[in-house]
Design goal:
The chain is an alpha+beta fold. Helix content is about 50%, strand content about 15%. The protein has helices at about 15-25, 30-35, 40-45, 55-70, 75-80, 85-95, 115-125, 130-140, 145-150, 155-165, 280-315, 330-355, 360-385, 395-405, 415-425, and strands at about 170-175, 190-195, 195-205, 215-220, 230-235, 240-245, 260-270, 320, 320-325. A 4-stranded antiparallel sheet has the order 2-3-7-6, covered by helices on one side. It has a 3-stranded mixed sheet with strand order 1-4-5. β8 and β9 form a beta hairpin. It is globular.
Amino acid sequence: MVLHGGALRLNLLVNSNHFYKFTSFLGVRSFSEKVLSNPETASETTGDHLIYTQQHFALKESLRKIIDQEINPHVDQWEAEGKFPAHKVFKILGSAGFLGVNKPVEYGGLGLDFSYSVAVSEELGNIRCGGIPMAIGVQTDMTTPALARFGSAELKKEFLLPSVMGDKVACLGVSEVGAGSDVSSIRTKAVRKGDEYVINGGKMWTTNGTQADWMCLLANTSDGPPHRNKSLICLPMNLPGVHIARKIDKLGMWSSDTAEVFFDDVHVPCKNIIGQEGMGFTYQMLQFQEERLWAVANIVTMMDNIIQETIQYTGQRKIFKQPVLYHQSVHFRLAELQTEVELLRSLLHRATALYIKGNDVTKLASMAKLKGGRLAREVADSCLQYWGGMGFTNDVMVSRFYRDSRLMSIGAGADEVMLGIICKYMDTLPKK
């Protein structure tokens, strides 16, 4: 049975028929049913959270069942193959409403605020690799926010609706060779000829690139100033002149396909532009707020899991006739790392709370992204050390996290770019 995302709206009373239908659809007893029958559980579960309600936890519980049944049993195979079946997985998630929780109901979404996207991202952190959550995040919070906010009704019907429902896979075309974190320096051009744009250039590091049905493309549509000459364009990937040059072999994120894409006189209707011509750079910067918060939410859960698995392992593994965990240097270090994770989670939730009220959280999102990347490296390195020789194999999650999490300090803006943004908001950058 496939339910339209709009029929699953969660911003109803927690004991309404629609909300119960959502959780029952996935075979999970309604979270509201549990907490309403046990008020103490409700206060203990929601009282510690700045932004989460019973609805958020019901959403997370339902998603966890899909992860446990439909994704995690296959992760090792997909990692070995270097690709996961995006259309199959996205259709499962889209049919259940998880690819558009904060997207408009009329285009298949649940019509909820961004805090629900953060909750989904946190729960996706329970997937046993980094590549699949990243691919999902590209679909939900990197390619579609600008389309949902500024796109025409026609574009939303053609590209947003099927993306939310899981019928189409999307990719983001921003980074290029020589233009990664410096988005303003991209060279791909879209020259207007009549009622079409003719596109030439290329994109690098394109997540979902070998499987995508369409790309949210950032291209230069004029020769004006670099921050006012770019536009976002919905580009079908099956058009003549679109060439997938290669699938990139990466250090980590193995199950997520990453492509280098070239455009050779690709003709796209002018109506495929998102919002106003020349506003693409601004739209992309706005998308980055959601992208960076989403990434932080995802890796916070992963770090929680790695710390817990390390505790379990070191509690069993003995050295010098006692468990590794009993050494003060080990349990003190794990306590420090868990403290840092909790601090990052608080920053994430504060930024999210401000964002859903309409505030610009570029500074806080950049801080969270910076800290998330650096902390992930600390957690990965420290925990792997305590696994000893096992940590140097591909048989355990900590080694996979060590590889995958390194991208956090590079993708969606490197650490140094985050520092520059933070300094700009602190007004400490040297004057030119």
